[in-house]
């Protein structure tokens, strides 16, 4: 095809593109690469399939989509001027505002058209623009699926099948000359509706009520229901062809008439310019960073608190998967958070690989070994681990508590929470944040508006392909107005994902006081290392001391070093949190430390070493008193027994009414037997005020250490991709070369053999020659250094056409430079189905 010859098909248009343009198409539509097309024709065919076109339309911004919609209702092919007129109008209702909008559309249309061309949705020169057939079918109007523009069918389409007599009646009522040719009658009616002057005269004679009916249909839906005896205004419109019948009860406003009433515009409000994300507030960037850092530290503490809660083995997994509502509420209460926020932290820990199933028969959730590695990292690196797990995650915590398509409840950590659009929305929201000046908090309403403009079709419902519901019709007269089509802020998935992103970013410390922090900007621009370095100076340094008080409490004036925090969390209970954490010492907490293997002397030494204040006397007495009684009673497994050297203590237990349920009996002066297991017996005696200790079969005290339960090594959940991954430059280059080479093999001009056994077969089929002819032709090509066209069947039985330049022929193999693969390869001669010489340039 010459460079000046207009393309006749999409394949020819793609063939005329340069390699960079083809690579751009494959980059924009990666689904076309799976698998790599054999040639340009196959690429064009795949680009026109319904699934691929729908995916491409979903990635268009609003104005590019409006341009495609205008082409869908324009003549095929459409000149550029006609397309521009459909978007700007015919200019007869000019005003200052219209002039500004027209100038913006005129400036933006070349870019929108270039985007459509790049994605192979539009092809052809400016004077013959063509929308690919599948996109036209999806966007063009039909009774089942009205056009997004609100336009109905053309007069030609609406009058198809109409009787000639009815056409004559319409012409007469409209004041047009009669004609017995139906084609001429339709052309005359079209000419009337597209003539501004005559159409204005016709509408000037219309009743006011008829104009009101047209006003209700002009911007769509263009269909209306009529009674068997329509009112005079409707009858007036129907008689003159301004309303054409679709069925016995349905009429439609033809496209040409609607465009006249719209002043030639396909859309009520074209949007050539992206909405601006407005600023809600201007804040001090340093204050934003400090607020975000404080929230980041809170996020780390919350994750630690959650997994510490499940250290000894977390909640059981539901049969259908996930966490029960009761366990979610329990975790929310422990974290002092709402259930949706608790679901977010749980899902985040799961996405980061810190939480998983233990895989036991009684399956439960527990921390993973990666959690211990995460704890050993500095705080700023722990934060970047969480954020880099959150950004690409497709599991969506905001769905927890909702229902799936079958009406089943969606639970935290359960299935059906993956939404492939989530990573793209998160990235885009943060990118829009980053485009604002530092310290600027955006207005969420304008942010959502911008997202809807960028992906107007993403996350919205489209009619199913087999939908057989009737036309969307307006009932008149007196049937009520059309329902509004504007959706609220949370009506579509992308809007809900954006709102959840705003909340989650604030919880994580990605944003502070509604504005993007500098550490988050560094994460987006430079990576996790730069973000961690920016965050580190803003986080408080861990402390190695607490302040002990006489009321049996300890105050931690800031974050504590990990060994100190772990020991103190065993020795005392957290009473309150905030800028300072208050711990309370109780007999139960001291006994917990003793059960973990600590001795009273160890506890005294620990408190003295880590307190900036003297150890209060009441606290020392509490530790000594609990230690004195700790282990005085020993409980082991017989079924269970209680052993004590002091007979009086055992007598006291037997006399206590609260021990009746334990069904104790004396085996020896210092031993009691029980009908219950050791664990419940241990807890029951502790509730009675004693301090028993569990012992082993050898009589040694059992030491219970917190935090020992971990799952086997687990990998974090893999995000569910939205489609094929974006190809890298290497893959794109190789794919373009393969497609070009395959296209050369498929379209190369070759010499036709003489008639006989090896006569040419159908176009596109493999060449067929005898073994002797194949060997002779290949040897001759090797001697002359020329290229030949071969058919080849590989070991798997897959057939292909190739253009090769033979270099050596020996031992039943031919070594040649394969233009299709762009490399030197060796082929067995017995797998070559046939060979043909390439025609000389200028011959057929």
Layout of strands and helices, then pairs:
Elements: H1 10-15, H2 19-28, H3 40-47, H4 50-58, H5 62-73, H6 80-88, H7 96-118, E1 122-123, E2 130-131, H8 133-139, H9 155-158, H10 164-173, H11 182-194, H12 196-204, H13 208-217, E3 223-225, H14 232-239, E4 244-245, E5 250-252, H15 255-261, E6 279-282, H16 285-309, H17 325-335, H18 339-351, E7 355-357, E8 365-367, H19 369-375, H20 379-390, H21 422-434, E9 440-442, H22 444-454, E10 473-475, H23 493-508, E11 511-512, E12 515-516, H24 518-525, H25 528-535, E13 547-549, E14 553-556, H26 562-571, E15 573-576, E16 581-584, H27 587-595, H28 600-610, H29 617-629, E17 634-636, E18 640-643, H30 647-655, E19 665-668, E20 671-674, H31 678-687, E21 693-694, H32 729-747, H33 771-784, E22 788-793, E23 799-810, E24 813-818, E25 823-828, E26 832-837
Helix pairs in contact: 2-32, 5-7, 5-8, 10-11, 13-14, 17-18, 20-25, 21-23, 22-23, 24-25, 27-29
Main attributes of the structure:
844 residues, alpha+beta, five-stranded mixed β-sheet, 33 helices, 26 strands, 43% helix
Shape: elongated
The major pleated sheet works out as:
5 strands, mixed
- What structural category arises from helix and sheet content? alpha+beta
Structure annotation, total helices: 33
Enumerate the strands of the largest sheet in spatial order, edge to edge or round the barrel: 19-20-18-17-21
Record field, number of beta strands:
26
State the separation between the terminal residues, measured CA to CA. 14 Å
Question: Rg from C-alpha positions?
Answer: 39 Å
Helix fraction?
A: 40-55%
Q: Average pLDDT across residues?
A: 83
Strand content: 5-15%
Low-confidence parts: 459-491, 754-763
């Amino acid at each position: 095809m010459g460079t000046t010859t207009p393309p006749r098909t999409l394949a020819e248009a793609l063939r005329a593109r340069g390699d960079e343009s083809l690579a751009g198409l494959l980059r924009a539509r990666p689904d076309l690469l799976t698998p790599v097309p054999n040639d340009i024709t196959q690429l064009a065919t795949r680009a026109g399939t319904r699934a691929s076109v729908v995916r491409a339309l979903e990635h268009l911004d609003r104005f590019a989509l409006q341009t495609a919609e205008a082409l869908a209702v324009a003549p095929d092919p459409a000149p550029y001027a006609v397309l521009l007129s459909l978007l700007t109008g015919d200019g007869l209702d000019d005003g200052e505002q219209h002039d500004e909008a027209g100038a913006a559309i005129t400036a933006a249309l070349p870019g929108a058209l270039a985007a459509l061309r790049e994605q192979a949705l539009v092809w052809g020169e400016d004077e013959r623009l063509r929308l690919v057939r599948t996109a036209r079918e999806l966007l063009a109007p039909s009774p089942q699926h009205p056009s997004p523009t609100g336009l109905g069918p053309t007069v030609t389409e609406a009058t198809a099948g109409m009787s000639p007599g009815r056409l004559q009646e319409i012409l007469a009522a409209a004041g047009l000359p009669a004609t017995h040719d139906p084609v001429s009658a339709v052309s005359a009616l079209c000419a009337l509706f597209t003539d501004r002057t005559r159409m204005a005269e016709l509408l000037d004679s219309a009743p006011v009520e008829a104009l009101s009916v047209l006003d209700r249909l002009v911007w769509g839906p263009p269909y209306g229901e009529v009674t068997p005896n329509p009112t005079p205004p409707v009858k007036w419109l129907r008689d003159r062809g301004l309303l054409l019948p679709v069925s016995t009860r349905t009429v439609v406003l033809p496209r040409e008439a609607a465009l006249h009433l719209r002043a030639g515009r396909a859309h009520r409000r074209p949007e050539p310019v992206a909405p601006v994300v407005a600023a809600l507030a201007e804040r001090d960037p340093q204050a934003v960073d400090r607020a975000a850092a404080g929230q980041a530290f809170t996020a780390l503490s919350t994750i630690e608190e959650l997994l510490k809660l499940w250290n000894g083995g977390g909640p059981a997994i539901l049969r259908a998967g996930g966490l029960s509502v009761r366990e979610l509420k329990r975790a929310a209460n422990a974290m002092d958070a709402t259930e949706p926020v608790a679901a977010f932290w749980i899902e985040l820990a799961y996405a980061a690989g810190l939480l998983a199933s233990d895989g036991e028969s009684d399956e439960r959730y527990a921390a993973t070994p990666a959690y211990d590695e995460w704890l050993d990292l500095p705080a700023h690196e722990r934060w970047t681990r969480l954020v880099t797990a959150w950004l690409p995650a497709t599991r969506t915590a905001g769905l927890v508590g909702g229902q799936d398509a079958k009406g089943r409840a969606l639970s935290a950590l359960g299935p059906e929470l993956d939404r492939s659009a989530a990573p793209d929305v998160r990235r885009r929201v943060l990118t829009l944040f980053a485009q604002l000046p530092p310290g600027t908090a955006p207005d969420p309403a304008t942010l959502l508006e911008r997202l809807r403009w960028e992906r107007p079709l993403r996350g919205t419902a489209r009619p199913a392909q087999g939908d057989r519901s009737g036309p969307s019709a307006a009932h008149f007269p007196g049937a009520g107005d059309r329902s509004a089509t504007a959706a609220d802020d949370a009506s579509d998935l992308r809007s809900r994902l954006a709102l959840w992103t705003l909340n989650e970013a604030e919880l994580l410390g990605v944003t502070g006081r509604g504005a993007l922090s500098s550490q988050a900007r560094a994460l987006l621009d430079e990576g996790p290392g730069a973000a961690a370095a920016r965050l580190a100076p803003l986080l408080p340094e861990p402390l190695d001391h607490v302040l002990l008080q006489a009321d049996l409490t300890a105050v931690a004036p800031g974050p504590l070093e990990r060994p100190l925090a772990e020991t103190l969390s065993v020795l005392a209970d957290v009473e309150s949190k905030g800028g300072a954490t208050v711990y309370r010492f109780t007999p139960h907490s001291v006994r917990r430390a003793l059960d973990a293997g600590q001795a009273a002397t160890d506890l005294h030494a620990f408190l003295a070493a880590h307190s900036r204040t003297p150890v209060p006397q009441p606290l020392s007495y509490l530790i000594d008193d609990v230690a004195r009684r700790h282990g005085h009673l020993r409980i082991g497994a017989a079924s269970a027994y209680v052993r004590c050297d002091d007979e009086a203590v055992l007598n006291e237990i037997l006399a206590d009414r609260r021990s009746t349920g334990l069904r104790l009996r004396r085996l020896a002066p210092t031993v009691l037997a029980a009908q219950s297991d050791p664990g419940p017996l241990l807890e029951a005696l502790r509730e009675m005020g004693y301090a028993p200790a569990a012992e082993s079969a050898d009589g040694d005290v059992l030491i219970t250490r917190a935090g020992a339960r971990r799952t086997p090594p687990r990998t974090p959940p893999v995000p569910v991709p939205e489609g094929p991954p974006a190809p890298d430059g290497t893959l794109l280059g190789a794919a373009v070369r393969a497609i070009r080479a395959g296209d050369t093999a498929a379209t190369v001009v070759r010499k036709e053999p003489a008639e006989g056994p090896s006569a040419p077969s159908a176009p596109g089929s493999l060449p067929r020659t005898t073994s002797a002819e194949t060997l002779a032709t290949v040897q001759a090509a090797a001697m002359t250094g020329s290229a030949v066209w071969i058919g080849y069947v590989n070991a798997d039985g897959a057939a292909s056409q190739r253009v090769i330049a033979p270099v050596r022929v020996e031992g039943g193999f031919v070594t040649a430079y394969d233009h299709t693969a762009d490399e030197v390869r060796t082929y067995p001669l017995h797998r070559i189905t046939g060979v043909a010489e390439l025609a000389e340039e200028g011959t057929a």
